[in-house]
Specification:
Blueprint: H1 2-11, H2 14-17, H3 44-69, H4 84-91, H5 97-107, H6 111-125, H7 129-155, H8 158-161, H9 177-196, H10 206-225, H11 229-254, H12 258-295, H13 300-337, E1 340-341, E2 354-355, H14 357-368
Antiparallel strand pairs: 1-2
Helix pairs in contact: 3-7, 3-9, 5-6, 7-9, 7-11, 9-10, 11-12, 11-14, 12-13, 13-14
Length: 375
């Protein structure tokens, strides 16, 4: 126990995490100053389970009936004929062309028959369109709430209008009750995503997104520890805005409202560029890199957090380039061919859905979502 205590003391030394001549005792919350309390970080865990219960009720009793009224089906793809030999091969999930040849000989089938069985078997594991519609509806609902609530609570905060207030008198920043709830619910949401990801629609970037959610929680917890809640709240606000329209575009796609999907996705693209390539670097990164050093004495943790913010900016640039590149290619193909039938590599059951060129970009953005959030 003494060893762990010494390691913890060495790790959380104020020389690393706080400005010079500031100790943890100086920012301990009391009756006069309600600084961020590290003990409060336990609350998002039970809150995450409450969110999961709310989500279950929301999807089952609100979104499912609504989705069915739109004609979204809850049926899955046709089941593959039971076959023990192919089932064992399918479990491995990595079937090479040479294995297909061997399986065809073993079963006295053609290679095409084996490939068709494997396609049906993979489609059999895919969730129904209604299930995906419900998941996107929940995330759309949350991001809408989070953005509106964040805008309301930050509207009368001085650092929304003058970002230098994120650094004035740092780290002696009290946390008001509305900011406390904003942070706690945001962390609870990412905890809930970390839990629900194991029974939600499985995607190819499963572990990448899981690591992203954990990294987001770690960053939010760290910013809470060192009272960087003001700049953290602005990062949350900037990132929630565009996600509303991405989830809404996917909902429209699953409901087979393609023109609506295209319009919403166009709005998403514009907001993505404005918030991720506009506000984020020229407002937030500029302030943390240029203005903050003029106001706050530098300390090691500052460079850690600012490096992570800049790393996120590079990810935004890469994702924006890829999205715009695919959007351009899809739009050009649509002009030449009129209409494109496409299916996401994740959604075999969607293969029969008519898709315009912009839908290709929506499918791509679905894989790349979320990105994001430093939170």
């Amino acid at each position: 126990m003494n060893v762990l205590r010494n390691v913890s003391s060495a790790f959380w030394t104020p020389d690393v995490w706080l400005p010079p001549n500031i100790t943890w005792d100086d920012i301990t919350p009391n009756s006069e100053n309600k600084y961020a309390n590290p003990h409060d970080l336990i609350y998002p865990l039970p809150m995450a389970f409450i969110l999961l219960i709310i989500r279950y009720a929301f999807e089952r009793y609100c979104i499912t009936p609504f989705g069915k009224s739109l004609g979204i089906k809850n049926t899955r793809a046709k089941k593959a004929t039971p076959n023990d030999i192919l089932e064992k091969a399918y479990v491995s999930r990595k079937i090479k062309s040479s294995q297909i040849v061997g399986l065809a000989k073993q079963l006295d089938w053609s290679e095409r028959q084996v490939e068709r069985w494997l396609r049906l078997r993979r489609a059999q594991d895919k969730p129904s369109t209604l299930t995906k519609f419900c998941e996107n509806s929940w995330r759309c609902f949350y991001y809408t709430y989070s953005f509106i609530y964040g805008l309301i609570v930050l509207w009368n905060k001085p650092w929304l209008w003058d970002i230098k207030h994120c650094y004035y008198n740092y780290p002696f920043h009290s946390v008001s009750s509305d900011i406390w709830w904003y942070y706690m619910i945001s962390m609870a949401f990412y905890w809930s995503l970390s839990f629900s990801q194991f029974f939600d629609v499985k995607r190819k970037d499963f572990w990448q997104m899981f690591i992203h959610h954990i990294a987001t929680i770690v960053l939010m917890c760290s910013s809470w520890f060192v009272n960087l809640t003001r700049i953290g709240s602005l990062v949350l606000l900037v990132h929630d805005c565009a996600d509303i329209f991405l989830e809404a575009a996917k909902m429209a796609k699953y409901a087979n409202y393609q023109k609506l999907c295209d319009c919403i996705f166009a709005i998403f693209t514009v907001l993505w560029i404005i918030t991720r390539i506009g506000f984020y670097p020229f407002w937030i990164i500029h302030s943390t890199s240029i203005e903050a050093p003029k106001i706050v004495p530098m300390f090691p943790a500052y460079y850690i957090f600012n490096s992570l913010l800049i790393l996120l900016l590079f990810l935004h640039i890469i994702w924006t380039y890829l999205i715009l590149k695919i959007a351009f290619n899809a739009f050009y193909a649509g002009q030449m061919e009129g209409d494109i039938r496409s299916s996401s590599s994740e959604d075999i059951s969607d293969a029969s859905m008519d898709s315009t060129s912009l839908n290709n970009t929506t499918n791509y953005a679905t894989k790349q979502n979320s990105r994001q959030k430093v939170h």
